[in-house]
Amino acid sequence: MKRFENLKELLAEYKKLWSLQYAESLMGWDIETYMPEDDAMTRGEVISTFSEIKREIYQKLGKIIERYEGKEGLNDEERGILRVLGRDYKYYSKIPLEIIQQIERVRSEATVVWRQAKAKSDYSMFKPYLEKIKDLQIKIAEYWGYEDHPYNALLDLNEEGFSIRDGDRIFSRLLPELSDIMKKVSEKGYFPKSHELEEVSYDIGRMKVVNEEVIKILEMPKGKFRLDISAHPFTVRISADDVRITTRYEGKDFRSTLFSVVHECGHAIYELGIDRELEGTPIGGGVSMGIHEAQSRFWENIIGRSREFVSLIYPKLKQNLDFLSKYNEDDIYRYFNIVRPSFIRVDADEVTYNFHIAVRYEIEKRLIGGEIKVDEIPSLWSELMEKYLGITPKNDAEGALQDIHWTGGFGYFPAYTLGNVVSGIVYSKTPNLYNLLREGKIGEIKTIMTEKIYKYGATYSPKDLLRKTFGEEYNPEGLILYLRHKYLKS
Amino acid sequence: MKRFENLKELLAEYKKLWSLQYAESLMGWDIETYMPEDDAMTRGEVISTFSEIKREIYQKLGKIIERYEGKEGLNDEERGILRVLGRDYKYYSKIPLEIIQQIERVRSEATVVWRQAKAKSDYSMFKPYLEKIKDLQIKIAEYWGYEDHPYNALLDLNEEGFSIRDGDRIFSRLLPELSDIMKKVSEKGYFPKSHELEEVSYDIGRMKVVNEEVIKILEMPKGKFRLDISAHPFTVRISADDVRITTRYEGKDFRSTLFSVVHECGHAIYELGIDRELEGTPIGGGVSMGIHEAQSRFWENIIGRSREFVSLIYPKLKQNLDFLSKYNEDDIYRYFNIVRPSFIRVDADEVTYNFHIAVRYEIEKRLIGGEIKVDEIPSLWSELMEKYLGITPKNDAEGALQDIHWTGGFGYFPAYTLGNVVSGIVYSKTPNLYNLLREGKIGEIKTIMTEKIYKYGATYSPKDLLRKTFGEEYNPEGLILYLRHKYLKS
Hints:
In chain A, 63% of the residues lie in helices and 3% in strands. Chain A has 490 residues and is mainly alpha-helical. Chain A folds into 2 domains: 1-94; 164-488, Neurolysin, domain 3, CATH 1.10.1370. In chain A, strands 1-3-2 form a 3-stranded mixed β-sheet, sandwiched between helices. In chain A, 43% of the residues are buried.
C-alpha cells in the first residue's frame, strides 16, 4: 500500500471500512463452519449493527470522494479505487435505508418459507414472497437508475457494466451451438449419460485425504489457506493472506466433493493471486462475481475435468479409494464428464449448464419488465426447459423452487454464464495450457493467469479488464471452441 | 434487554461498541485456533483499527454518560452499566493514546524477546524490556490515579476496587496457614509428591473422547458451546449464546488436558449463567478476572479434583484409557492431587499455588513502589521461593522468566489468588455441595452458583457482589477451611 499518494486521506478513512469487512468475512465463515447454532440471532444483530457503522463511514467517504471528482494525474489503481468506492457509495446514498432493511427482512423470512415450500414442492407458499421481492427489486432498479430496461439496473448491480444487450448477444449465439453439441455428444456416445460410480459410497476419512492431496497438487499455500466443512461449499477471502474454502461430504458419488474443492480452489487462487500491495484498499479483492466464476470454472472444468488433470490425480485417487481398483484413467475421465439433460442446475454438466441459466435469465428479464406475472413463472419454466433441454420438471421442487437465490433478489444468475464465457476466452487465449498441465506445472498456469487477470484485483471494471487483457468483452466463441474441442474433438 | 428505560440513548450507541467487541472476540479465538499463520500481521492491523473506531465511539459515549451524572431513580443494572462504561471511558479519556500505543508496541516486541530469553534462560535479554514496561506502567498509574501507592492503580485496573490493603491482608493470613498445611500433608503422606501416571502417554483420539464425556458430565449446552485445540487453553465469550473453550494435548500426564477442560468449563459456565437479558449491555459479561478465576478454580479444584468427581468420571476414564486398568478411584484421586513444591506456577497444586502468586505480588509491589530495581528481580525471586517453598530455581527460565504476563504489565497475577480465595468462600457457604456432586447433580450446583454469582454479570463491582451475596469481601478463611478439610481431614 504505497502507490496511492493521491488518495491518502480517503484510504485512511477507508481502512475502517476494510477492517469491518474483514471481521464480517470471518463472521460469515464462522456461521457456516463452527458457530454454535444458538448464536445465529445475536450474530445477525451484530452484522446489522456493522451495517450502521459502515453507513456512517460511507457518509464520510462520500464527502471525500466528491472532492476528488475531476482530479487529474491519478494512476490506474487510484482511478479503480474511486470507481469501486463510488459504486458502493452510490448504493448507500441512492437506496434508502428502509428499502435495504425491507430487503433484508423479506430475505430472511423468504429463506425460511422457501425451504418449506421446496420440501413440499408448493409454489403457492413461496409466491407471495416472490411478489414482495419482485416489487422491492423494481424499486431498487428505479433508485439505482438504468437505460432502456429496469433489469439492466439489477444486472449492473450484480455485475458492473453488464446489460441485457450483452446477455441477449451471448445466449443467442451460445444456445444453438450448445444444442448442436448436446445432440452430437449423445450420438457419439463416448461421454456417458450416467455412470455406476455415481452410486458408489466412499469413506469420508479417505476422501478427506484425497481432497488434501488435490489441494497439494493445486499448490495452495499452506500459510494463507484452509479447507473446512460446511453445508454448502463456498470460498471466503478474509484478507490477502487468509483465504478459506469449504466442501461437504455426501458419502457417495465422490466427484461432487472433489469438484467442489477444485471449484472453490479456483476462487481462492484468484484471490491469492491479487497484487499484495492492493490489500487494504477497495480494489484488493476480485472484481466481480462473473470474473470470479470464470476462475472457479476455469479451474473446475477446463483444468479439473480435463484428461490431463485426471492423470495428475489418478495415483492419489487409487491410493485412497479402494473401489477404484477396476477403473482406469479413461473410465475416471468419462465419469467426471457425464453429459445429460437434467432438472437441477447445480448438478448440470458443462454442456447443459448454460441452458439452466438461460431459463432464469429469460424469466427474470420478463418478470422485471412486466411481461409476465409471478404466477406464470412455473409454466414459463417448464416451457423453456422443454425448449432447451427437451425435459419437463414434474414439480416445482425440481423447477422454479430449486434455488435459494431469488430470496435475495434478481440479476445474480447470469454471472454464472459470464463465468463460463470468460473461462472460454481464457482457454482460447492460452494455447500452451494443456502442455503445462500435462507436466503438472500448476504454478506456471497460475503465473499466466495472475498476469492476465488476478494481479489487478478490482483495478479495472470487468469489461475493461477483458478488453485490456484479451482485446474483447464477453465473446462466447472461446467457450464454443472449448466445448466442441473437448466433447466432439472438432 | 428491556429493563433499561433510563439508558436508551446510551445503550443504542453502546450497541456499536458491543458489536465490535463481539467481532474482536471471534477474531481472537480464530487467531489461536484456525487462522492461517500468514494472516497474523494483517489481523493485528484490523484489531488496531478497531481500537480507533472504538475510541471514537467512546468519545460519544462519554458525553452521554456525563449527562446521566447524579440522575436518580436508576435500578441496580442501570447503575452497573454506568459504572462499567464509566471505567472504560475513564481509561480511554485519562490515558493518552500514545501511551496505549507504546504499551502495545512494547508488548509485541517484548513477547518475541521473552520467548528467546526464556529459551536461553537469559534474564539480561529481557531486562531492558521489563524496564520500559515498568516505566510505562508507572505512567499508567499516574494517569489512572491512586491512593497511597502507585501499585494500587494497577491493581484496581486489573481488578476493580482491589488494593494493597486487601492483598497484604490476604497473604499475611494465608501464607502461614499454607506452610502449615504443606508441612502436614507431607508428613501424612496420603497425597503423593509424584505419581507414575505423570509419565504415562495417552492416545490423543481417545483423550478427546474423554474430554467430550467430561463436557457432557458438566452439562455444557451443545448449542452455545464448543471445544477446540490451541497452544494455550483459554475461554472466550463471544456472546451469551456462544462461549468457546480450548485445550491442548501434550501426549502424556492426562491430568493436564483434563483439568484444563474443567477449568475452562468453569469460566464458560459463569458466562453462560449470566442473565440473558443483560446481553448487549456493558454488564453482560463476567465482572472481573478475580471473580472469573474463582469460577474456573471452583470447577477445576473444588469440584473437579474432589473424590466425588473422580467417581463421576471414573467409568469414562477406564473405558477410554486402557492404561488405567490397574488403578482404582482412590489411585486416580491421589494422582489428581499430587502436592509438591515446584518452580512453575502453572504446574502448581492447590496447596502451593498461592505461594507463586505471593512471590509475584511482592516483587511487583516493591518494583512499582521503587523499593527494588528491575535488576534485582531474579535474586528477590529466589529469596522468596526459598522462604515460601524451600526451593531455589536453578535458572531464570524456571524463575522470573517463566510467565509471559509481564510483557503486558503488572497487577494481573493477584487475581489468581483472589480466585482461589473467592472459590473458598463459595465452598464454605455451600454446605450441601458434595452431597449434590455425589449424586451427579451438576445442574443444581450450577443453579446455586447462578443465583449467588453468575446471573448478575457485571451489575455489581466484585466487592459489592461478594458483600451482597456472602456478606464479606476477600476473606481467606473459606479457602483455609477447604484446604484443611481436604488435605488434612481437619
